[in-house]
Amino acid sequence: MCFSELYIYFMIDLLNESYLYGNDLVSEFIFFLQYKKSQQMTHWAAFTHMASLEVSQLKLGSQGLIVSAQGLGCMGLSTNYGPPKSEPEMIKLIHHAIDSGVTFLDTSDSYGPHTNEILISKALKGGYREKVQITTKFGIRWTDGKPDVCGDPAYVRSACEASLKRLEVDYIDLYYAHRIDTRVPIEVTMGELKKLVEEGKVKYIGLSEACASTIRRAHAVHPITAIQAEWSIWAHDLEDEIVPTCRELGIGIVSYSPIGRGFLASGPKLVKSLKEGDFRMNAEHNKNVFERVNEMAIRKGCTAAQLALAWVHHQGTDVVPIPGTTKHENLNQNIGSLSVKLTPAEIVELESFASGDAVLGDRYAYKHYTWKNSDTPPLSSWKGI
């Protein structure tokens, strides 16, 4: 690669704020040249062409579902992260993802609410439905402006039929309980989901933020294909019980927020760009984690986001991360993470950055939204028994 090509690539990265060395352009460029002089240029060449990678497919769980090795978390295309997005632009991004091989699309009836599923339905017109695996979720409903978790059978059925209508599809590839209703035995919720599978409205069943005991009880009613949970360099709480349980039962793992809700891509710079009301405002105290990840990424010739995603990919072929983004260039870089190889020593080093007290704060302000509060009453307690 010639000098002029390297200069162009570097300038593009600066404009995209992929490297966070400082504000002095001259000193940044000098640092870059010094750094690249000490590294094999093949690493940089691999990085600049990562977007042309082919995204492979894999079997998620043991029930037969085939998905792309990396999915697309679609929540941010409609809600939660920043100001409203242009619908035509978000549809273009979804098409770009699918055309690039990212065919595992993750949404929920609570995103918007409802607007995200409608966006997906518009994006899948013109023959795209046959190319994708649609994941959506039920269970979080809004009452008087407050969220409530519901796993009642009648609600499960009505939520599924409403999602089918909004998505304009005949079936949902993977249907999750978004959160676990701790008032309803999980066997009751699963019983209705099983009926939806038998009726052809749902192909595969999943749970999100479920503890090991709830997973086992649910799986005994009908095989669970996937468990969705937050899993990243700085979120390891599922590793002691949930991951071993999934692997024992042949259940796949879908990692949401694999880039730490964007923080592992941009660090403290993300916090400064957030608007009032964005729930990621509490990330300032964890900037040291990002800085260490970013330093290692520089050594590896990739971005911090790619390194964070690569760590998730290296957790096993039964794990599929679903990073979200609203930008084409970030989508391309996320795909590029599939080519980042980590040695066992590098994995240990990465994990050390977020060990102990290095990461402060809870994943959620309300712990009842996590697997730690997902045990349900015994089946014998249910009113219908």
TrEMBL record:
Alphabetically list the UniProt keywords: Ion channel, Ion transport, NADP, Oxidoreductase, Transport
Documented EC number(s) = 1.1.1.317
Q: Which Gene3D superfamilies match?
A: NADP-dependent oxidoreductase domain
Quote one Gene Ontology molecular function term.
Answer: oxidoreductase activity
Keyword Ion transport on entry: yes
The Gene Ontology biological process annotation of the record reads:
monoatomic ion transmembrane transport
Name recorded for this polypeptide: Perakine reductase
Chain ranges of the NADP-dependent oxidoreductase domain = 71-353
- Asked if the Swiss-Prot or TrEMBL record annotates the protein with the keyword Methyltransferase, the reply is no
Q: What class of enzyme is it?
A: oxidoreductase
Example of a GO cellular component annotation carried by this entry = cytoplasm
